[in-house]
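User: structure tokens for this one?
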Amino acid sequence: MSCQPRESEGKSQPKFRLYVRTAVMSSTDQTKTIRQGLSTRESRLLARLAGAGHQIISVDDIETTLEIPPNTAREITSRLTEKGWLDRLFPGTYLIIPLTAGEEGVYTTHESLIAAHVAAPMYIGYYSALSHHGLTDQVPRTVYVVTPTRAQSREIHGVPYRVTTVTEGKFFGFEPTSIDGTTVQVSDLEKTLVDCADHPEFCGGLRELATAMRTANQRGCAWDTVGEYLEQLDNGAATKRIVYLADQLGIDLPTRETLVESFTSGYSLLDPMLSDTGSPDSTYRLRINVEPATLDPTES
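Assistant:
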């Protein structure tokens, strides 16, 4: 399988929540005052950045756009932040407050756009991707970012951004998604299921994964692709969990026999979020620490 992102076809708008900030503006007169506070160079900078479609920028972007020394770029960044034109997200990274903020100064930015600047390269995965694909009714508070590089988890304006560093071999199965004119990488539906089987603790646990698999099956999930992804991921526990849940849910896995043959000899926990209890199941090489009945959908 290729590690390149695949194009998104016919995708609906993502279900990512919006990050909303109220700027210190409450009238048209106040907005005019802020605009008059910009120097010619500052106005030219913001016009160029907006014209290029930038919503989130770095100090390097200012340095490059105006062709100025780093120290000068940092000084301009500081002034624009004080004047209310930039909102500091984390060191060196800023959100541009748009001119269309309105009389009350309210503007919105997708959290996924902020997530795209937390690490590079990256894709949005796990619980956040489940929400994006409509495989859960939950709206996770945490935004999950997957990257093969070292990056720091952060809390930005009260929203946690959880960074998970994976090996290069696990960094595949994502696709570009356009959000407010900006491309953000998100794990595709099949890779989302595989990633969640690899780390159920990042998707709300095994029951959420079971719900996601049931919904994905109803929507025509490419289970042969899931099998290929599991082989590429090369994680015995993830493979066992997918096969076990597929059998419990009555899902036909085209490559089931091949996946079973790849089972590792050790016994993995069915749900690593729960205690190390339950009886071992030699068929799946799993320690069943979840009651199968709890995987059934709840009555609405």
